[in-house]
Design a protein that fits this description.
Helix content is 47%, strand content 17%. It has 250 residues and is an alpha+beta fold. Helix 7 packs antiparallel against helix 8. The relative contact order is 0.09.
Length: 250
Amino acid sequence: MIFFCIVCILLSDIPCTKFICYALVSIIFLYILYKLRYPHLMRKNPLANIPFEEFDYQMLLDALQEYRQPRMKINRMLADGTIIRVKKGLYILGNSSRRRHFSREILANLCYGPSYISLQYALHYHGLTPERVETVTSVTTGRSRAFSTPVGVFSYRSIPLEAFPTGMGQYELADGRSFLMATPEKALSDTIVADRGAGIVNVNEMREYLAELRVDPNMLQVLDRKLLTTIAQRYRSRRLRFLCDLVGWL
């Protein structure tokens, strides 16, 4: 319809109208030429289709489906820092394209599984210990592993399958998403069992051990003794029974 109107105007005898029409034709021609010559500049930002800062390889491919060679595009984005590879198949947006801060807790759940955050990181998160922990520590039913990545270290300690599901909880981020992490009771139990050098043979030694860990005594008073007892049974741990006795006396 537009081209039909332009042709009609060109056939008319009004000089000014012809000039405007020639200008419109030129603009349309240049636009088509530019689109054919630089198609990548005409596309919208493909990463805008990725809802969160953390994403996997398949989500990235889906966002780049309009590209004829998406893998080459991925390599270019990695090279210029548009995206960052945390580990194989797992990425975050780079500083130049980041919309909000990424979640290391979400990344910890995605890096290696099945797993959930526990041990020292969870102790500090729950306020049981004062020291900030840079390494995101988790437990897993797989082999113990550690990953050094551009966004920090993620470590995973193997625990028995029987003890794994007990004391696992979901914790919500500000954006509504959730990540898996041990409850305070499970985080403390995992830490005690993981410390094989701790020769704890009675309740008093357990009290001394917790003081060395700088565990807040006030936090011990609010721990769920019933859950601690269940965890001790799953672990079949005498040391955890001492912990249950100590909490029961507080």
